[in-house]
Amino acid sequence: MLRLTPNPVIGVMFHWLGGLASGSFYAPFRKVRQWSWETYWLAGGVFSWIIAPVLIGSLLTSELGATLRETPPITLFWVYFFGVLWGFGGLTFGLTMRYLGMSLGMAMVLGYCAAFGTLMPPIFAGDFFTTVLGTRSGLVIVFGIAVCLAGIVFAGLAGISKERETSAEQKKAAIREFNLKKGILVATFSGIMSACFSYALAAGAPVRAITMRHGTAPLWQGLPILVVVLLGGFTTNVIWCMILNVRNRTGHQYFSAQVRLSGDSGDAARIPMLRNYAFCALAGTTWYMQFFFYTMGETQMGAYKFSSWTLHMASIIIFSSLWGIALHEWKGVSRRTRGLLALSISILVASTVIVGYGNYLGTLSQPQKVAARR
To answer: For residues 262 and 203, what is the distance between their CA atoms, to the nearest angstrom?
Structure first.
């Protein structure tokens, strides 16, 4: 079986690429015209949850079908189950973007997600107090996680400060459906449920060994797990979006190139079908790439793979905040608010460096442990 020597520096770079993909995926959706949210979310999701993981997994892994067939059913069940729960988080994540915008919405969701998704797997596995808190490298990583959470707090404070300073007209201009109270409620639920993706990856550990036994390179060992996790997410999202399509009478949007305008004139406007599907495909594929790079980064983090979740969350907030600036969501705010935003980004960047350094210390201690066992 091929072996991979961990390199936390490369791992951090992969996680930054994943964060860039996640922080950028929603931008193409803004180009979709005359489609309801449920229509373009599901259209993009087909690429996110089905097409991209199956296609890329088939191209980069060896015997994907055989790997999944040989995986114990109980493993597939838990990976799929956590994927379904994560689907609720992903579903309401889109709603959070609608109500809070990219900057504040992602900060709140990912704050909950970072805490639950990073710490629960090692606690559940019984490794947290020994392997993590009992080693110097583990303590450095925990400190980096705390720094990351502090950065998320400052990102939230910046968002709250912006909300107080921005007029109702400015909020609606940047975020058409801005609603702070509804957004906070949805973001809390979304963040906790989204952390289930981390649990699904941990539950899928046997899949990694099976796919590498079939000849898959260690760098791509996580891709077969994504096929099952995202199938669970697809299940949740497709059911809810179809319910909304029926309730809102928007199911025709997938097929009809015309939409009837409101009023008694009977006039109809033409829907740019090809353009809409193209932007949905771009958004969906870009979204998938966050976990494509995530699984690659995870292979480089050595014994402390759980810290990958913190790196992923921090990177997403950094790039989503930059997108928020580019899309003028922070236009007209005070110097204090801009300072809070800049401080949050700086702290988050520092957290990725600290967590990466902790993993580097962990790779240095591994040869010593091997030698001691010999």
So the answer is: 50
